[in-house]
Amino acid sequence: MNLNPNADIADYYSAETFKRIKDFADGKETPFVVIDTQTIDRQYEELVEGFPYAKVYYAVKANPAPQILTMLRDKGACFDIASVYELDKVMGLGVTGDRISYGNTIKKAKDIRTFYEKGVRLFATDSEADLRNIAKAAPGSKVYVRILTEGTLTADWPLSRKFGCQTDMAMDLLILARDLGLVPYGVSFHVGSQQREIGAWDAALNKVKVIFERLKEEDGIELKMINMGGGFPANYITRTNELAVYAEEIARFLREDFGDDLPEIIIEPGRSLISNAGVLVSEVVLISRKSRTALHRWVFTDVGKFSGLIETLDESIKFPIWTEKTGEGEDCVIAGPTCDSADIMYEHHKYPLPLNLAIGDRMYWLSTGAYTTTYSAVEFNGFPPLKDYYI
Ligand SMILES: Cc1ncc(COP(=O)(O)O)c(C=O)c1O
């Protein structure tokens, strides 16, 4: 028996912020996500305070809403862009090419050309074919090579494997970049999104250091930049350290490897900036049991894997859930509204929802500002994409 089955709001929002969000949400038809831009503002300041030596390139994929992009533009942020579509969006708001990095290692030659024509001169790569495309379509640009990292097991949403290359290949590519008339500018990595093990940055920076030293000694190439990617934590059910602890530790790793004279440092936060600014509000559609003696209920809600909660895939991200009902809880399976049996958010990790939760009640999914709106399907089972509001 669980007498306090709801997430504790105070762990995620100030009372004032949650009230602001909830007041706004009351009466609006579900499902939707409300994003509190004041929270993003505060989290951006925290990030800058924690990483005063770094340039922030916001990972636009986390949430490309114009309200967020405009705010970050005005605060002086740069942007990590994944596609020409994101490029158009960001440039449409007046951001110039010198504040943009084309961070996707998988891109068409014609898209590289578009970025170049629009003034972008900073490109990520991790393969020879892509590098040769960059040399042709964006001559003379700065390139940084993304390396593979460990940390897959401690990141809730791992990214390595698909992206990055081994250290030796990274060095080969940086030498080739020089030979192709590009500027071999630096090295990047992403330790995995929602990375709970801070040591993952240490291991990655050790590899970067080897590349910096060897290229200088053996090839006379002086790299100028380290892009430490994203991976900083949002606040979900599974605990992480505070951002300040990450910042302190990572500063120590950098000093240990590079001394006081740091190269240019870039970070690309997405989740850590945006997640905790959002609350997704859904409604319970149906509650059932699968047999007369079943020990748990199935709670079906009007939001699911295909309408913003895809990061529940493999139950990777465990969003805190709050309802207005209190009292005794009972373990539930939580599933979405579509006719697809993959549309189950949590089955192994059983959330204890209040026993008196009823059809029509609202569920508040906390820390859902990032990677929800954009992941939402266009028309699966006829359901429209997730609505979003910005306050
Ligand atoms: C290249 C790159 N940078 C930054 C990010 C943002 O990472 P996070 O949301 O963990 O901060 C991502 C996420 O996929 C990415 O692919």
Automatic annotation (TrEMBL):
Keyword line: Lyase, Pyridoxal phosphate
Metabolic or biological pathway, per its Swiss-Prot or TrEMBL entry: Amine and polyamine biosynthesis; putrescine biosynthesis via L-ornithine pathway; putrescine from L-ornithine: step 1/1
Residue positions where N6-(pyridoxal phosphate)lysine is found in the record: 61
Keyword hit for Phosphoprotein: no
InterPro entries reported in the protein's UniProt record: Ala_racemase/Decarboxylase_C, De-COase2_CS, De-COase2_N, De-COase2_pyr-phos_BS, Orn/DAP/Arg_de-COase, Orn_de-COase, PLP-binding_barrel
Reactions performed catalytically: L-ornithine + H(+) = putrescine + CO2
Gene Ontology terms for molecular function: ornithine decarboxylase activity
Cited Pfam families: Orn_Arg_deC_N
Top EC category: lyase
EC number, UniProt record: 4.1.1.17
Active site: 339
Gene Ontology CC: cytoplasm
Domain of life: Bacteria
Essential cofactor(s): pyridoxal 5'-phosphate
Xref: PROSITE patterns: ODR_DC_2_1 (PS00878), ODR_DC_2_2 (PS00879)
Domain Orn/DAP/Arg decarboxylase 2 N-terminal span(s) in chain numbering: 38-274
Biological-process GO terms, alphabetical: putrescine biosynthetic process from arginine, via ornithine
UniProt record similarity statement: Belongs to the Orn/Lys/Arg decarboxylase class-II family.
Protein's name in the database: ornithine decarboxylase
Provenance organism: Marinobacter excellens LAMA 842
